[in-house]
Please model this.
Amino acid sequence: MGHGRDFIDQYRIIRSIRSGATCQIFEAVDANTNKKVAMKVLMAQAKKSRAERKYLQHEYDIASKLDHENVIQVFGVRTTGDDPYLSLEFGKYLNLKQRLRLDKALMLHRANVIIEQAALGLHHLHDHRWVHCDIKPDNFLVDDDGGTKLIDFALCQPSRTGFLAKLGIGKPKGIAGTRSYMSPEQIRRRPLDIRSDIYSLGCMYYEIVTGKLPFTGATPEQLLVKHLRSKAPPANTLNNNVTQEFSDLIADMLSKKKEQRPNNLDRMLGHLSSMRVFRSMPPHPSEIEPPEAEA
Ligand SMILES: Nc1ncnc2c1ncn2[C@@H]1O[C@H](COP(=O)(O)OP(=O)(O)OP(=O)(O)O)[C@@H](O)[C@H]1O
Ligand SMILES: [Mg+2]
Model:
């Protein structure tokens, strides 16, 4: 953003929410409607890049066709000029990555809601034949009741199945996405379909209920090899309050072969509704007694 300016087009900038690798997120007010919005604005290096400006347009083109309560709403885009931006529905709460760190007990208490709503939002994207390609806790915003919204459509690709996949059309150029949640086929740079996101969602579910990632490595290469070859310890061995059914569902989602994963989220949600995530409901933080009060 230029110095001494507090407007970008009709948006009055209130404050910076977060500075990332390529973009800065601001809280702003649309002066035309007086509504609060979030602005994703390309930063110094990124705005010089034509590719980054195109990602912004790509993200707008995808998100503007989506309409679901578990998906963030997008309002506008501008890819020209000094401050290329995307304007979005303002998310009052932090992303799930941050919340798992700061509000661990509350997130565990709301885990069943988050698990369902994350899948509902992603399913809506899949219905539009997009693969998100970057499913991870940083890309969901979560409120105190567990209300969850999917964000960040920059890396979305069309789902490649059947004939097109066999031809290898639509192979991604580089490794995009985050290694801790990356599917084996994404690591191998194969054409992707929605089952790649189902794998990544499985990694995220694992982290929500156990507090640990299914795979870690001392180096990025070791981590990738584990995604390709290792079996994660069942989630219910790390947290014995996780039911066998949910632990098995996560294991299915983490299958190395996509054919062995649940093949769509609609069916997975049906299965999920017939089971419990936890043997007993994790308590709300207000019900957890501080250690001093014991004994
Ligand atoms: N609409 C929003 N409301 C509130 N916070 C948001 C919103 N959109 C994004 N954020 C916050 O900003 C972070 C980064 O946004 P986003 O995931 O869209 O960008 P990114 O491409 O991952 O950015 P970078 O690569 O620079 O990290 C999110 O993880 C979230 O914490
Ligand atoms: Mg992101």
User: Anything to note?
Assistant: The chain has a mean pLDDT of 92. The CA atoms of residues 286 and 292 lie 15 Å apart. Residues 96-273 form a domain with the Transferase(Phosphotransferase); domain 1 fold (CATH 1.10.510.10). The pocket of magnesium ion (ligand 2) is lined by residues 138-139, 152 (CB under 6 Å).
